[in-house]
Amino acid sequence: MHDIPSSTRWLGLAGLLPFLGTALGAWFAPPEWRGLALFALATYGAVILSFLGAVHWGLALNAPPAEIDAAAPRLGLGVLPALLAWAAMLLPPVPGLGLLAGGILLTAAGESLAARADLVPLPYLRLRWGLSLGAAACLLAGTAAAMQGG
């Protein structure tokens, strides 16, 4: 992680705070606030999942000519997370939060495949896996809270 600027690391970690706060709220907030905590968790998860897809549009649009064959898969990886996020927001909390967790992890897995072809920088990938695991854990904690009734 030494090749990642410290501001990138800190901003990435700060991005986990809404996940953590809303997941904790889903478990420990007064009952009348737990539904809002679950909704806030799902909404933030959907925004972040869409953001992760947008990274790949940026990579595709800025790709050197040698990477032209990767344009379609990159654009696909850019669109799929937003579609998953939208679908998750149409679902009740338990399947919706699970879909968001799975989408975040699947996006990181797709990025791992892209990194093998030198299409994603390795420092980004290392940071992404750590952040993805943290985000997915919070989304799954919210899923468990919703299953328990908070």
UniProtKB/TrEMBL annotation:
Keywords of the record = Membrane, Transmembrane, Transmembrane helix
Give the signal peptide as a residue range, or say none if absent: none
What lineage is on file? Bacteria, Pseudomonadati, Pseudomonadota, Alphaproteobacteria, Acetobacterales
Q: Which PANTHER family match?
A: TRANSMEMBRANE PROTEIN 69 (PTHR15887:SF1)
The record lists the membrane-crossing segments as: 35-59, 127-147
Return the InterPro entries for the record: DUF3429
Q: Which organism is it from?
A: Belnapia mucosa
Task: Give the domain of life.
Answer: Bacteria
Protein name listed in UniProt: DUF3429 domain-containing protein
